[in-house]
Structures are given as structure tokens and as C-alpha cells.
Amino acid sequence: MAVVVFDTSFLILLLDPRVKGVGKVDAKLLHLIATLDKDVVVIPTPALSETLIRAGDAAPQYLEFLSKTPHFRIASFGPRAAVEAAARHREALLAGDKREGSESWAKVKFDRQIIAIAKVEGAERIYSNDADIHRFGQAEGLQVIRLEDLEDPPARTPDLFDQ
Fold first, then answer.
1. pTM (2 decimals)?
2. C-alpha dist (Å) from residue 84 to 1, 78, 137
3. How many domains would you assign to the chain?
């Protein structure tokens, strides 16, 4: 059993029906979920918060789904993650580049919280389409997988009645 993390970009694809129906994206994501059958998918609270901003009236259903599905575990930004994130912030400040190429200081802090939660939870990899998460995660030794990197689901084998 492995521990993996979904950030906002994957959570929205998974939960938001307004993003559904885009064919190959849905198929790849469903195939990923099927292959993670014994893994624990950690949802960092900062990523959950970002997802819920856009959820509107669907927020309670999103929370219910994540809470009742055995594969998912919501992880808070607690004291251990705070220490981890602070260490990364301190290193960046000492290096003279607190934003490390990110668009804003606020985004950097948020993304570092997600990475810190992933590390504290013992995650092996993060699923994310965010360039900063990708860069920060790799710098911390985590495998970061983008949607485009997901394997395609196997082609369905035609059965006898598909003629």
C-alpha cells in the first residue's frame, strides 16, 4: 500500500461535473483511480480548500464523497507540516529567492504547505498539473505526475455481441 497525494488540479477533475465529459481525461483519471485500489490518496486541506472555493452548492457532496470513500484521507496542515514548510521557507529566504520562480509569495506558501503535508504523510508521489507543485515536489524527492503522464486505460476488448 502506497500513500499518494492529489492536489487541486486532480481533485477538480475528479469531483467537478462541469469538468467531466472530456473523454480521454475522464478515462485516464478513472483508470488511475482503479489502479490505486490499495493505495491511500491523501487530500491536503489547502488543496481541499481551493477545490471547495469553486464547488458552490456541491461542496457538501464533495466532502461526503471524500469522507466516505475508503481510498481518500483528508490531511490537515498540522504542527509537523508547519515545521516542514517553515524549513523550506527559511532555506529559500537564505538563498535570496523566497518565491523560487513562482508568480506570488502567497502561492508559494500555499504550495509549500501541500508539499509539507505530502512529506509528513509519507507520500511517494503527488498527482498535480501545477508547475510550482511539480518543481517543489521534485526538489523534495517526491515523484510528481501530471495528467498528461498518466497511462491510457487499456482498450476494451470487444465481446461477441459488439458486431
1. 0.85
2. 24, 10, 13
3. 1
Nearest partner of 119 among 94, 93, 90, 144, judged by Cα: 144
For residue 149, give the amino acid letter.
D
In this prediction, residues 149-156 reach a mean pLDDT of 80
If DSSP codes are grouped into helix, strand and coil, which group holds residue 31?
Answer: helix
pLDDT at 163 over 50: no
> Does residue 109 lie within any of the structural domains?
yes
Domain, as residue range, for 52: 3-149
CA 2 to chain centre: 14
Q: How far is CA 29 from CA 22, 126, 148, in A?
A: 11, 14, 10
State the CATH number of the domain containing residue 108: 3.40.50.1010
Q: Is residue 63 part of a domain?
A: yes
